[in-house]
Design brief:
Layout (H helix, E strand, L loop, with lengths): L4 H11 L3 H10 L4 H19 L6 E8 L3 E9 L2 H4 L2 H17 L4 H6 L9 H12 L4 E9 L1 E7 L3 E7 L4 H14 L11 H12 L9 H19 L5 E2 L2 E5 H5 L5 E8 L11 H10 L1
Antiparallel strand pairs: 1-2, 2-3, 4-5, 5-8, 6-7
Helix pairs in contact: 1-2, 1-3, 2-3, 3-7, 9-10
């Protein structure tokens, strides 16, 4: 049976597979569209499994907020080129919305969640996207907050999710921007673990400029330094980025209380790819 361009186009639109893959699949099943779709799905899943050994440290941070809930998710792929792809962006925004509405307990639970738009588990959706896009795709993590929620995503690379006791959109937006810019690690000094305090103290006590000072003097100097260092790590004690004459605590006093915030940096702590883009293109061509 002759495989026409129209048939190939139809199969490509239905599956997202490459043109040559579609033509080959149709030829193998004498033009039967359903069988060709099944064959591509099977090959796509096999292809997806092969790609799971690759490094995926690029991607996007996406968020979704409704009246009572906010979700933020990091989805990784292999290259920044794919991260800018509209299909990948749509996947990430859809997953953020699904987290907010389905409220899964963890990534495994999310992967088992059935997507209401397509009726398939998220794990299958991811496999199909891997086959379609041609890169490893993984859901690394997500955060779910409830209450009065604000969010800010900076170029898909940095994401902030904020929960407060009262709603003040302008102030909450400013807080998200501040967190993005100043990168606090904790809400207040009360939230800093003892081991973090001890490690910072150990580092300061070992600095050369204090080596010849008496022990009691060193302790007092380190105590002062430690207060400044730890204050820089706490949201409420940081100088507000738009007005450093006041701290964040002073800014929000009597207006609202921050319940919790989460900040994601895309790919933090992940192994990065060492290949350049030209090498990646050549690999794709040779597959």
């Amino acid at each position: 049976m002759e495989i026409t361009a129209t048939m190939v186009k139809e199969l490509r639109e239905k599956t997202g597979a490459g043109m040559m893959d579609c033509k080959k699949a149709l030829a193998e099943v004498d033009g039967d569209m359903e069988k060709a779709m099944e064959a591509l799905r099977q090959k796509g899943i096999a292809s997806a499994e092969k790609k799971m050994g690759r490094i995926a440290a690029e991607g996007l941070v996406a968020s979704y907020v409704n009246d009572t809930t906010g979700a933020m998710i990091e989805v990784n792929c292999e290259t920044d080129f794919v991260a800018k792809n509209d299909e990948f962006k749509e996947l990430c925004s859809g997953l953020a919305e699904l987290v907010a509405t389905a409220k899964p307990a963890d990534v495994d639970a999310l992967l088992a969640t059935v997507c209401p738009k397509c009726g398939k588990p998220v794990a299958d959706v991811i496999k199909e996207k891997i086959a379609s896009i041609g890169e490893k795709i993984t859901i690394r993590r997500f955060e779910l907050l409830e209450g009065n929620i604000a969010t800010y995503i900076h170029n898909g690379k940095i994401g902030v999710l904020l929960s407060t006791d009262k709603k003040d959109e302008a102030l909450m937006k400013d807080l998200c921007l501040h967190i993005t810019s100043c990168a606090p690690e904790f809400l207040s000094s009360n939230d800093i673990p003892a081991e973090v305090r001890e490690e910072e103290k150990r580092i300061e006590m070992g600095k050369e400029d204090l080596a010849n000072k008496p022990e009691n003097i060193r302790e007092k100097i380190v105590e002062g330094r430690l207060h400044k260092i730890l204050a820089q790590k706490c949201l409420l004690e940081q100088p507000f980025v738009k007005d450093p004459s006041q701290t964040v605590a002073q800014l929000i006093e009597g207006k609202l209380t921050v319940n919790k915030f989460v900040k994601y940096n895309l790919g933090e702590g992940l192994e990065k790819r060492s290949e350049n883009f030209a090498d990646e293109v050549m690999k794709q061509i040779q597959q």
